[in-house]
Amino acid sequence: MNRITWMLMAAVLFVGNATAQTTKLRLSLDWVFEGQTSFLHMANYKGYFKEEGLDVQVDVGTGSAGAFQRIMTGVYDAGLGDMSSQIEFLARNPGPLQFQSVHVMYDQIPAAIFALKKSGIRSVKDFPGRVFMESPTGFSRRIWPLLAKAADIDPNSVKWVSASPALRATMLINGDCEIISGFLSIPIDLMTRGIKEEEIVTIPVADYGIHYYGNTLLVSQKLIEGNPKAVAGLVRAFNRALKEMIADPAASVKYLKQREPLVDEALEVRRTRMVMPGMATAQVRANGLGAIDQERLQKQIDQVTQAYGLTNPPSQDRLFNPKFLPPQAERMPK
Q1: Radius of gyration in angstroms for the set of CA atoms belonging to the chain, rounded to a whole number
Q2: d(CA 27, CA 77)
Q3: Of 209, 173, 220, 191, which is closest to residue 70 (Cα–Cα)?
Q4: What rounded mean pLDDT belongs to the chain?
Q5: What is the DSSP letter of 325?
Q6: Which distant-in-sequence residues (6+ apart) come within 8 Å of 255 by Cβ?
Q7: Which residue spans within the chain are E strands per DSSP?
Q8: Is the pLDDT of residue 13 over 50?
């Protein structure tokens, strides 16, 4: 074999290897490893990311603010974060755009307010004079004026106590507060501490007109501009795995168990089913996963602006970038 032939073969091998190279990404969850985000581990173990030319590292998170900061530092390329928190963050940081939502995970934020029946609380109208535990930047503290208005009560009628979200269940049980908030799966945290399900009062925020988009897939602007192909692949794999989890939560949670052997598989399946109404809404079943309705998003921007006292609300195009969404047919839940 002559020298020219060897050079040609080497060139072909080089091009082939370059083509086969994968893009490494780091994705921050909104919280710890739990059932509702098991689909991201499934996407890894079943090779959905790999098929898109991606090597995605999925790490535990510390909330929406943590995801924003991780992406802005450049250490992470993507993350899960709450749309209302994103609205507030962009309003308070109007400089160059650092990240955008590219796929909606929760069409309806699966949030609720919780109390124990022995407190006598049954609705928001029973809140005046009660102690409400929330972190200083927590969701319920910020939307409280809207809830109070919907219930026709004085927003200054509750007493606030600040603490880490990790302590909310313990504080409620110990009587350090009478009201807590969180995802619809919070009763699991109470029940694992000995509270019976029938002793828990759940008040969904949707019952008071809070129809907000919740967590979304966020991607750094650097990746959007520098490697749009990787973003499109990430969204396709994300959407594909999310659809599968909605169709069969138990199968999805098995991949969480592979990633974190110490989790209680049955408990995480239950947790996933409790928040799934926020994913597979009537809107999603009619129009598909991932997208936003402009009128509805604008209402959320307006209400969050009012509730948070913002003076520079972001435009919709700074919040959400729809160009990476798969075709509607691929986004219809099973």
Answers
A1: 22
A2: 6
A3: 220
A4: 92
A5: P
A6: 38, 39, 41, 42, 44, 45, 46
A7: 23-28, 54-59, 78-82, 99-104, 111-116, 131-133, 159-161, 180-183, 200-204, 215-220
A8: no
